[in-house]
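Per reviewer request, we include the raw input and output of the structure prediction for the construct analysed in the revised manuscript.
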Amino acid sequence: MARGLGELESTIMDRLWSYHRPASVRDVLEDLRADREIAYTTVMTVMDKLHTKGLLKRKPVGRAYVYETVASKEAYTADLMRESLARSGNQAATLVHFLERLTPEEATALEAALRVFPPKGRRE
């Protein structure tokens, strides 16, 4: 189940997604310190919580852990979208409201995605 993220959780996940490789708490800490003052224990606690939520996997390396994202940012976002749709109560109405609010760029992206992966009833 996907979950919404807090501000620091989101920032840390964005950094990990951008690395495309496993990273230690120290790696993320040094990256974050370029933009803000933050304690090692804060980053460690948040990364542990992201692991508990199932968004990060980790393996011990020496006395520390190395973390890696479980899924891509796109897959995580898709899970959030599906969960929101499932909770909406009226999926058709929710989709209509969603489509009404698409920017031209988003509509173009949706059309391109449907060409790559057509709805189940329309597959050949």
